[in-house]
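Appendix B. Extra example for self-study. Work through it before the problem class; the solution is given directly after the inputs so you can check yourself.
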Amino acid sequence: KNQVEQSPQSLIILEGKNCTLQCNYTVSPFSNLRWYKQDTGRGPVSLTIMTFSENTKSNGRYTATLDADTKQSSLHITASQLSDSASYICVVSAWDDYKLSFGAGTTVTVRA
Amino acid sequence: EPEVTQTPSHQVTQMGQEVILRCVPISNHLYFYWYRQILGQKVEFLVSFYNNEISEKSEIFDDQFSVERPDGSNFTLKIRSTKLEDSAMYFCASKMEAGGLGTDTQYFGPGTRLTVL
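Solution. Structure tokens for the complete assembly:
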């Protein structure tokens, strides 16, 4: 069964600090991995997407890494801002699969 | 920038009633999806739709659920007889291309919060 596990479940950081979120998956055959940001009460918004051959992708202060051998990904947030407070969801899709497998998300709270 | 829209933003209904949730996907997209997110839980896939038919559906998508693209722009999710456990946020998503190697992104709407009393 395709599964996506994220850690930590939640974290609190001070504005300006960095943090790293983790994602482990068992989706097979792997196609691509996305990180989404979901603000409270809103739909998820795509931050990055990586295929098998990519091991890092940046979008502003967000940098995602992928190790397809160990089936792990991370999302690094640099110099956090209050607006980064949200749930960050790791989403993996399998080859020729119409649906996405979602992680439970990591809730990030940035405090001034 | 084009976006997926959903109406209503919040729907309150009595148990056993029928509800229709509406979505307008991005205009040149070909693949459409419904997801739900029960409060505090992960987003769950319900159904995918392509070429006017269901491509894939999850175990959650039982006979109480149906989807339709009635007029080429709207994409609807109908729940025939709502249950308390149907209370959730329902997200519509759309994308241009198929899965597999495609790196196309699913664009999500803002969601409809369904409350079943």
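Self-check: The interface with chain B takes residues 31-32, 34, 36, 41-46, 49, 51, 89, 93-105 of chain A (CB under 8 Å). If your reasoning did not lead you there, revisit section 3.
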